[in-house]
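W.,

You were right to be curious about this one. When I first looked at the sequence I had no strong expectations either way, so I just let the prediction run and decided to look at it fresh. Below is the sequence, 304 residues in total, followed by the output.
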Amino acid sequence: MTFSDMLNITLMQGFAGLSLFAVLLLMGLGLAIIFGQMGVINMAHGEFMTIGAYTVFMFSTLVESKFPDLMPYYFPVSIVAAFIFAFILGWIVEWGLIRHLYKRPLDTLLATWGVSLGLQQVFRTAIGPKEVSPTLPEWLMGSWSPHEGLDIPINGLFVLALATVVTGGVLIALYRSRWGLRVRATVSNRIMANATGINTKKTDRVTFAIGCGVAGIAGAAFTTIGSTGPTSGSLYIVDSFLVVTFGGAASLLGTVASAFGIAQTQSISEFFMTGSMAKVLTLSLIVVILMIRPQGLFASKVRR
């Protein structure tokens, strides 16, 4: 194997890692909003991702059977729908359950774990236990070859672009909108935020729902690289918490950096060793770095 072949393989593995990076980033963004900004450990976060993936599948099935001429256009619409459905369910979960458990992290963890198991059973009953995949539009298929021997999947480029747009939107919303101002004021000093007239309960509800909605978008992105089953989201929940913890719980910049580092390390190392050993290598590096920097890569200085 020549050096050029090795370079092409490494680059292709790196681009494959970008697809995983995009999904981890979107999952991590949702968790960074919920866990980092609100201190809520949402064990059902993966199921909101699954809701987004199933939304794309149902849109695909409906359009393919009833409106086949719309197949090239359904995917962007289904991404918006995935956000809306996950947002609405997140709003309901916060109103019916989470709002009663603030400042009780263990109770929140157990309650959301129960929600996770319940949603998985709903998926099995309503859709079925088998994994499903949507029919993707033709413009998402194929690859781009900028160089001989180097093929970059178009769906990976799309997912990366989607993650970039969503990340930019979250950053703008958090630092340039009235909602973001309320969130930052609530995180900084909840009592003073209440005193200035901010409805912190409503802010918490919207924040939780937006975090769940972003997880729904992650699920929509996931359908381009894998099939979806009732437990698909739970397979990513540990990695998502690693992304948030490793990057710094309240730092969106840290979430981006850690998602990229974890995805690239895992993807490139999987070519040279087994998948389980690549996972062990990634986790070992994270543990070593967290021993040096327990606060994560980008610790956020916030008054509590």
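Here's what jumped out at me. The two ends are 56 Å apart (CA to CA). And, maybe more interesting for your project: The chain is about 70% helix and 5% strand.

Coffee later to discuss?

I.
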